[in-house]
Amino acid sequence: MNGEIMAAEIKEQPAVLDRILRDGRPRAQEAARSVRARRPRFVLFVARGTSDHAALYAKYLVETRLGLPAGLASPSTMTVYDARPDLRDVLVVAVSQSGASPDIVEPVNRARAAGAVTVAVTNSADSPLANAAEFHLDVLAGPERAVAATKTYTAELLTLFCFIEALAGRNSEEAAALPECATMLLGREEEVARLAVRYRFAEQMVVTARGYNYPTARESALKLMETSYVVAHAFSGADLLHGPMAMIDRGFPVIAVAPEGPGSASLTPVLERLRDLGADTLVLGDPALVRLGRVGFPVQELGPEWLTPILAILPIQQLAWHLARERASDPDRPRGLNKVTETW
Amino acid sequence: MNGEIMAAEIKEQPAVLDRILRDGRPRAQEAARSVRARRPRFVLFVARGTSDHAALYAKYLVETRLGLPAGLASPSTMTVYDARPDLRDVLVVAVSQSGASPDIVEPVNRARAAGAVTVAVTNSADSPLANAAEFHLDVLAGPERAVAATKTYTAELLTLFCFIEALAGRNSEEAAALPECATMLLGREEEVARLAVRYRFAEQMVVTARGYNYPTARESALKLMETSYVVAHAFSGADLLHGPMAMIDRGFPVIAVAPEGPGSASLTPVLERLRDLGADTLVLGDPALVRLGRVGFPVQELGPEWLTPILAILPIQQLAWHLARERASDPDRPRGLNKVTETW
Fold this sequence. Notes:
The structure is a homodimer. By secondary structure, chain A is of the alpha/beta class. Chain A contains 15 helices and 10 strands. Chain A folds into 2 domains: 4-176, Glucose-6-phosphate isomerase like protein, domain 1 (Rossmann fold, 3-Layer(aba) Sandwich), CATH 3.40.50.10490; 187-326, 3-Layer(aba) Sandwich (Rossmann fold). Chain A has helices spanning 4-11, 13-37, 49-66, 75-79, 102-113, 128-132, 151-167, 178-186, 189-198, 214-228, 237-241, 262-265, 268-277, 287-290, 309-326; strands spanning 42-47, 70-72, 90-96, 117-122, 135-138, 204-209, 231-236, 253-258, 280-285, 295-298. In chain A, strands 2-1-3-4-5 form a 5-stranded parallel beta sheet, with helices on both faces.
């Protein structure tokens, strides 16, 4: 069957999250102890594609929950422009499913030589990236065969969460409910399949969110592009108001990712504006915000907002899968893509 | 006439660049002397919309030419989540045309309280942002009346360039040729007008670039969205290969911004892939790369690649203007937008 690999990997996620809480968390805590002793003052993330969205989530966590300034490195500054920044007191965290992309490995080699503490977060313990970094966190997702990453994304999110919480001296206990919540959400697949039909002929789409779930919006857009070939564009709610709102007209399809929490609540004026413009907005999240959309997928009691990105992406992975099937394309074999992207 | 305000502001740019080199550069150098004495070790930028693209350009400069790690702050972490990161030894540079958006002013207030050296880059010397920061750099663009920013964008780029070069102990002398180059490029408007016709019925578009001009691709997409309502999506060449390439099919309109230099040269495999997919690619830049596109706007001798973003955006501003007019919309009054965007 077309798409059975991606479908199976989506379904594995509760088990993967459980495995990380059991086996990955203690290892992340151990690495965090060594990293803390080095007293990093800044955190830089290096990643591309889906892993870049995991890094963006981690950047929010570093800023809000660890209290350090953080940035996403532009890999090309090192690989194309030969930049050699002073990285003493900097923690560099590289995130890559395969650990094989040269434009992630090379910046880690350089960062280590420039005095940074380096951590690799990968799904491959014997990858070049795992070997290049001083510390390695295995995301324990098991082999991922679908080109469109699903389980490795949520595994990266949870692994990064456990690591950053440990850096802040906490033990991630709020994460205990994640596997059960994930099972509950994935159990609503029929509802998602009905929603997917709505987008059969959509050629373009905007995905929006604010705060912790802005990375979810980015990852949602990427999943829709790579499996369903819809031109999906992610904006933070704030950026959407800075210009792109002009292109939204009556009936324009928008997906808002807004699980309960202050970030989502701050999306209210954006949703009101979209409603006034007649946009066709699907709100996934807080029932109070679902009322502002044209269609909704209400979700409640997912826990603190900082954990919701690990859950909110699940129905959208299913949506991308069902939409690809509605469009008679094979979610397991997106045209024009390879599993490992080699860029410099 | 529809669009005359934006057209006039586009034409003012050579004079604005000249004014910055004459009056702005010495002030940027003076501020840089004081900032250098504080020995910042990490640079964070705070910005939204067009100014965020200027900040992204500056981030590349900090990494490659100043040799410090840098990041783009997520304003919502401070305004929505009340984050209080430790910002000692951090230089925080806020960029905003109006200097009035609360979600830029508030992070600067907090950064200053948290020990950061703060610099505001605005077009308004008596704005809340200019008052909030310890140092203020006026981009000297004169009042900007069009909703779509043009001259304030290039003015921000050049002001940031002069400031960062001065931080690195250099005097920006390579920038001397910019006003003349800008005049030369803007003089090719008829060519641009003919290219604009091509996109009369395009509903979506991808803009791509790599390295220093990735911000140009982002700003190009924003101009096209806000004036012509085309759904324009910017990707770095590397990210385009990580998934979104799947949505590119035969005839898909792509604009590649690729003035001569190593960043653009690294776009070669992306352009070849687009050609093989049958994409309708317009290459603006290096004649050697123009050959890989379906249509081209060859540009030569713009100087070192790190300065080309100040020039490469000019024909695209004109393209956005002409396309808006072809589509019978008013470039001066994009639907649904205000000049100052108030988000929190």
